[in-house]
Amino acid sequence: MEENETKQNVNNTQDTFIKGSAWMTFGSIASRILGALYIIPWYAWMGNYGNIANALTARSYNIYSIFILISTAGIPGAIAKQVAKYNALNEYGIGRKLFRKGLLLMTILGIISAAIMYLAAPLLASNGSASDPRQVAVMRSLSYAILIIPILSIMRGYFQGYADMMPSAMSQFIEQLARVVWMLLTAYVIMQMQHGSYVHAVIQSNLAAAIGAIFGIGILAWFLLTRRNKLNSLVENSDNQIKVSTSGLFIEIIEQAIPFIIIDSGIQLFYLVDQYTFHPMIAKFVTANTDTIESWYALFALNANKLIMIIVSLASAMAVTAIPLLSAAHTQGDYRSISKQIANTLDLFIFVMIPAAFGMAGIAVPIYTVFYSYDPLGSSVLYLSAFTAISLGLFTVLMAILQGLSENILAIKYLILGLIIKIILQYPMILMFKIYGPLISTNIGMLIIIFLAIKHLEISFNFNIGRTGRRFTGITVFSILMFVVVRIVVAVAGKVLSPERRFTALALVVLAVAGGIVVYGFLTLKTGLLEKILGEKATRILNKLHLN
After folding, report:
1. Given CA atoms 30, 35, 36, 38 in this order, what sign does their dihedral have?
2. Alpha-carbon gap, residue 270 to 396, rounded angstroms
3. pLDDT, mean of residues 126-131
């Protein structure tokens, strides 16, 4: 009886995880796709200033992302984790109190962080050699969003604590839609109608982050209203056995938040190493002017990065879903569920991420042409970046797992070690591989973190690495076969559909992606891998499609 109940709980957890991942994947992928598609007209309207405009954007967003993490202080993730913890104890009232106190804290931190970013922009706007006045103006335009986004983030965290991922997903989509509309509208008016400055266009494009955040808050407020009766009922029927003071709540939030700041900024910290070292280091090995080096920087820091983040967002979606579920299981001492949840998270990650990365590498040339223009160097950078996406995604998921299991200090130690390795290797990698050097040093640093994290989960939480390892091997083999087919389609069809022109390159991408999906889908269906990863949901879907 007890064994059946445990098995039922494990299945329910898997269903909740898959459902949550589906919603967060929708939100992340839809917003990422919008964020990538806008670049096609935007980049074209910038004319000859496309790469320089992208370099300005990339440098500003790297700093902005760190300030967002500081201004939110990791509190949304901490709120999600703590709300899930108290909900598991039937103390919904404390979760609501956490949310309300967190909103106040967010407002204060947002004001302070926005002011610091605005005033410190002249110091931060450096390419590693000198401050850039263009960068100062662009960076300051992003500071306005920091006033608003902390509130948006904590509202998302509250819903995630209930494992209710749909509001967060929809707010992501609406936020990005409003942002893209503003970016395209202002870029068109400034560059095409007024024939104005590309710097002014970039400033307006960055201001769009604040516009999007306002719309995101609006949709979340609507979801809170529609769910008000249900949430009130849960609070009214709480056990109310645990008493936590206001000061106790703030201390608890901050204790949980500090590790979230450090860990969540992990990828951005790797990017900041590139931002402040690439220009001065590569200038020692090649003879090129500042704008040329900035254009090279844009190739991997924004051009390729914007495309690979579409697939890395898959990992982010899974990570956000995993934290509250793991936290709840950890609070209840359900170590069997923890082991199963770790396996579910990693299985789903490799099932989606590895073929997505191989697929993007396979279509690197035509897809780069579609979004930017035909550029052999840019396409080569994207090719390597596609494989880097696996490391970035796996890092994101594993750090989220460690956070959900309250292994925050250990996660921070792994991150610091990885960063030290990245910094040590940066100079020799740029010396040997030039523009590809930063990507290679990032991969090595990330892989060491990944190895250490997986070994810890295996030893401390009885994670079955053997089963996941076998699935990883099978999926990698399937992905390589798919990659070969995609490359053949690109090579053969490319003789008729030129990868050097945008519309024919788009047709080439569609053909190659279709071929890749068919091959990977066939292999996973034929071997039963799809049902092993997705469980009963896959069986129901296959039955409806008469494929089972």
Report:
1. positive
2. 13
3. 61
For 171-197, what is each residue's pLDDT tens digit?
A: 888 888 899 999 999 999 999 998 888
What's the whole-number mean pLDDT along residues 468-491?
93
Nearest to 339 by CA among 467, 197, 244, 211: 467
Predicted confidence (pLDDT) per residue in 259-304, tens digit = 777 777 888 899 989 988 998 999 998 888 888 888 898 888 888 8
Task: Choose among 93, 94, 99, 97: nearest CA to 79.
Answer: 99
Phi, psi values for residue 189, rounded to 5° = -60, -45
Cβ density class 14-38: b for 16+ within 10 Å, e for less: bebbbebbbbbbbbbbbbbebbbeb
Return the C-alpha torsion angle 36, 198, 503, 185, nearest 10: 70
Cα torsion at 81, 86, 92, 98 (round to 10°)? -50
Question: What's phi and psi for 126, nearest 5 deg?
Answer: -125, 145
Dist CA 308 CA 541 (whole Å): 29
Report, in this order, helix, strand and coil percent for the chain, each rounded to 5: 85, 0, 15
CA-based nearest residue to 45, from 230, 193, 259: 193
pLDDT band at 4 (very low <50, low <70, confident <90, very high): very low
Confidence tier at 28 by pLDDT (50, 70, 90):
low
Q: How many CB atoms lie within 10 A of CB 491?
A: 11
pLDDT confidence tier of residue 10, bands split at 50, 70 and 90: very low
Give the position of tokens 């982050």: 209
In sequence order, the β-bridge partners of residue 131 are 126
**Nearest Cα to 109, choosing from 159, 154, 140?**
154
Work out the number of other CB atoms within 10 angstroms of the CB of residue 222: 13
Residues 6+ apart with CB under 8 A from 39: 306, 371, 372
Cβ-contact 499, 505 below 8 angstroms: yes
Give yes or no for a contact between 267 and 392, defined as CB atoms under 8 angstroms apart. yes
User: Per-residue pLDDT tens for 311-363?
Assistant: 777 666 655 566 666 766 777 777 777 778 888 788 888 888 899 999 999 99
How is 185-207 classified by DSSP, letter by letter? HHHIIIIIIS---HHHHHHHHHH
Task: Answer whether 265's CB lies under 8 Å from 66's CB.
Answer: yes
